[in-house]
Design goal:
Length: 285
Amino acid sequence: MPTTDAATIGALLAEARARLQQAGIEQAGFEARLLVGHGLGVSHSTLIAFGERPVSPVRAESVRALVAARAAGRPVAYLLGWREFWSLPLQVNEHCLIPRPETELLVERALQHLPANPARALDLGTGSGAIVLALKKEQPRLEAWASDLYPAAIAVAAANARSLGLAVHWFCGRWLEAVAPHPTFDLIVSNPPYVAPDDPHLRTADLRFEPRSALVAADAGLADLRAIVEQSRSRLKPGSWLLLEHGEAQGPAVRALLLDAGYRDVASHTDLAGLERITEGRIPA
């Protein structure tokens, strides 16, 4: 983006749009508005209504730095510091995955399986806390638990819970090992690492910048899914459910893991793109 001594909001917005278009960003106009608004600390309506308002050189360069980072591929969510999920504004940074729309299917299925009475649910590998906070928002009486292997991710999730006024019990450790001394659950849910280490998608788009530890699992992406299936078996109450997000081609393998471990009513569910994204199973009553 060219540097000028005196820029206006409108000129800066046009520069940003052109730079992102040149970089091949599909939603260049939309993302330009997000980044310019964030960099200037102004609303969308201000961008539209006050295009002739001058911008100081310091603020203009701050915006240009954001746009340059996005043109280089850095995710918008990390640049803005937040992402909306289930209508919740969530803080995100490089210590956690960026919540994605397809994961809302996991929340939808979990809400269908939660008992009407006050229940206890556990979110394994919580990251930003997106799933457990969405469940807690919809069921305020839910006793919500969540764990993550990384303290930095727990810090992000706990900050999101505080800003939303939602109470969650946080634990740091690997899967159910983090909560081993504690009670059984009415529901366990997880969006674990499930990408194979050699998957070429790891070199594309946002995945290049997200924490590899939250994306990649051994055994063609199945290692963590298998661990959760095995560990959850003894930690669910009779008749309770385990729900897992996984890769679009992993449905058959995850169904087999659940069936081999003795789960019943095993089924997979498709996202809006028609891809198998969620698989669930129930502990026999």
